[in-house]
Amino acid sequence: MRHSGHMDELDRLSGLIGGIYDAALDHEKWPGVLRQTADFVGGYSATIFAKEITRHKGFVAYESGEIGEANSNSYFEYYVKYDPSFMAQFFAEIGEPISTTDMVPYEEFVQSRFYLEWAKPQGLVDFVASVLDKNLTSAAMFGVFRHERDGVVDEEARRRMRLVVPHIRRSVLIGRLIDLKTAETETFAGAIDSLSAGMFLVDASGRIVHANASGLALLAAGAPLRALNGRFGASDALADKHLHEIFAAAGEGDGAVGTKGIAIALTHPGGGHLVAHIMPLTAGARSQTGAAYRAVAAVFVREVALDMVFPPELIAKAFRLTPTELRILLAIVEVGGVPEVAVALGIAESTVKTHLGSLFEKTESKRQADLVKIFARYATPH
Questions:
Q1: Do 277 and 265 contact (CB within 8 A), yes or no?
Q2: What is the pLDDT of residues 315-350, one digit of tens each?
Q3: Which 8-state DSSP code applies to residue 207?
Q4: Are 269 and 166 contacting, i.e. CB atoms less than 8 angstroms apart?
Q5: How many CB atoms lie within 10 A of CB 311?
Q6: What DSSP assignment string belongs to 216-257?
Q7: Any idea what the Cα angle at residue 64 is, between residues 262 and 150, rounded to 5°?
Q8: Residue 37: exposed, middle, or buried by beta-carbon count in 10 A (0-12, 13-18, 19+)?
């Protein structure tokens, strides 16, 4: 029976992965795909959202629908500033599932204003999320809500998140590059020819069967990309090996690619930095494009900035602050004294004082005004 259950999971996962990649080309598929993903992980609802870390703002890009627009709007318009996990989520390792208890003691969470006024009325008890991408001030995330009937996040939910998150991340990043409301498969090649990002369609051996103008320009510029005997490659031997392993796997289907090739760094000798995202084309609606070109994968290449770190992250690293301590520090800067911070965050004044004492010790300061000065020093460009 265990073997049968394992095969059932693999079948479900295979179909789900295909849907995830198809959603990169047709964004209207996301609600249905997210509904299936929530069911696979073991949750009530799933969402892809973005948040701005310094302004406590954000928006929902796609959701399965159970939470509803009104609740999503109330979260980002009002309750986001009371969410105990907001800051901690941003510091999570990209792709790694984190739940409420990874960020705040659960007994503290259920006493928070956020839980009592927003989560509890909906019957929500937990949330497991993963960072898909982040930059200087914002992060893109995927998450699954757990209802009372699901219970809090367990290891099984984390395991299943790890199975789907790499594919969601790849799909979202590529969908962002394509930036189309919908992309019919028969016009896909025409659409990507106009992309500002470099795009290459390759076969299982890495041979380039189609490239857009931006891709040809990248090849003409030389390192870190190259086309040796018509085969797509990288100047760096390790990156080149990685690329061709993925091309070979792509010929075996979506699942075979797995976590590889989501974001392959390509170092440029001149100081620039390129990243390659690879999407298989051998299953789902994408197979029509792949078959037309005898391609197994689409490679998207773009330039990115290196080592972007925003002030709160610098402060956290410099003083070894926990996410909760950083959250208290930012609240002190933005809101004011202990009573005001306690009200704003929906926690007891005694809790604020405890974390404030730790902040004083770690930063070797004695007053809240000193903490404000520390933040100002790190926030001011040098």
A1: no
A2: 777 788 887 788 788 778 777 788 888 876 777 888
A3: B
A4: no
A5: 19
A6: HHHHHH-TTEEEETTEEEESSHHHHHHHHHHHHHHTT-HHHH
A7: 95
A8: buried
